[in-house]
Amino acid sequence: MNEIYQTDLASFLEFYESNHICPYYFCSKNKLEDFIEAHLVKNLVQSDNDFLYFFRCMLKKLVGSLDSHTIIRTRDEYEHWPLKLEGA
Length: 88
Description:
The protein is mostly helical and 88 residues long. The protein is 53% helix and 0% strand. Helix 2 packs antiparallel against helix 3. The longest helix has 17 residues. The mean pLDDT is 81.
């Protein structure tokens, strides 16, 4: 995974931990780290689409499969590609 995606992932996780009322309710932090590592071993994240897929899988792990309100916001909400994530 390239540096931009790593930075986006780290920023999101920091924001999520500090702002979510119970960030690891469905999945412990250790299980999330294991999931991320396993996913990156099995799947190359080389493009925006790869990162979006990875991120959506990670969100489902974090917030549960029944969650329907969590969305991914881009830095520029009016321009969806290329994908650039923000923490807020």
